[in-house]
């Protein structure tokens, strides 16, 4: 395990990095934020990734979501301006849930293949085209599971299914597109400039 991929475990052990904590999980800042607000919710239990989750973890999933709501409230932000979800495949060791504002304005957005989180409201599950959402979220190469979808898969299948290499390759072929409108930039610099315009 590389120092980078195990970084979350080290942060989890450092109470000074915890913004909010419960008996089951903690909230920390993402060290490489992809938006003005980008937080991670980590369970204290030793769960490497979403692929080790089972139906027995559903109550833990609810706890993670409640902490996500809590950090948004603490920061005095609007839940409607945030997205919550998990990457598939995960980029780091230790299960973590992303809580990220929809602006995606950040110096850490540098390449088309950077992973961006996609979510649906846990309490308002919706049926949508996953590939369409991937295109609308900066053409990311890491598919992001909807929080509601994770819970649904655990209830029905008892586990989360990894994406195949073919599925991931298909996602990376899609063009960039703004997540807030229909604009399709030629490259990341143009997309970043455009995203800033939505803040005005």
TrEMBL record:
Keyword rRNA processing: yes or no? Answer: no
Which SUPFAM superfamilies does UniProt cross-reference here?
HIT-like (SSF54197)
The record ties this protein, via Pfam families, to: DcpS_C, zf-C2HE
Subcellular location per UniProt equals: Nucleus
Entries under InterPro entries matching the protein: HIT-like, HIT-like_sf, Znf-C2HE
- Coarse class of the primary localization is nucleus
KW Zinc (keyword) present: yes
Keywords of the record: DNA-binding, Metal-binding, Nucleus, Zinc
Q: Which GO terms describe its biological process?
A: single strand break repair
Q: From the UniProt record, which GO molecular function terms apply?
A: DNA 5'-adenosine monophosphate hydrolase activity; double-stranded RNA binding; metal ion binding; mismatched DNA binding; single-strand break-containing DNA binding; single-stranded DNA binding
Q: Which organism is it from?
A: Glossina morsitans morsitans (Savannah tsetse fly)
- Any idea what this protein is called? HIT domain-containing protein
The UniProt entry's GO CC annotations, sorted and at most eight, read: nucleus
Q: Which residues form the HIT domain?
A: 5-111
Q: What is the lineage of its organism?
A: Eukaryota, Metazoa, Ecdysozoa, Arthropoda, Hexapoda
């Amino acid at each position: 395990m590389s120092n980078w991929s195990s970084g979350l475990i080290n942060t989890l052990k450092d109470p000074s990095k915890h913004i909010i904590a419960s008996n089951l999980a903690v909230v920390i800042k993402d060290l490489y934020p992809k938006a003005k607000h980008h937080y991670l919710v980590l369970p204290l239990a030793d769960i490497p990734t979403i692929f080790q989750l089972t139906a027995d973890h559903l109550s833990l999933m609810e706890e993670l979501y409640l902490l996500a709501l809590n950090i948004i409230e603490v920061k005095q932000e609007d839940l409607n301006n945030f997205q919550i979800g998990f990457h598939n495949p995960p980029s780091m060791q230790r299960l973590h849930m992303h809580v990220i504002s929809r602006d995606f304005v950040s110096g850490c957005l540098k390449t088309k293949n950077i992973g961006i989180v996609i979510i649906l409201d846990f309490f308002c599950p919706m049926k949508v085209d996953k590939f369409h959402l991937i295109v609308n979220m900066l053409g990311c190469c890491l598919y992001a599971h909807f929080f509601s979808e994770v819970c649904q898969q655990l209830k029905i299948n008892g586990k989360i299914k990894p994406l195949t290499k073919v599925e991931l390759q298909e996602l990376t072929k899609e063009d960039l597109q703004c997540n807030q409108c229909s604009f399709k930039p030629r490259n990341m610099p143009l997309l970043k400039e455009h995203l800033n315009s939505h803040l005005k």
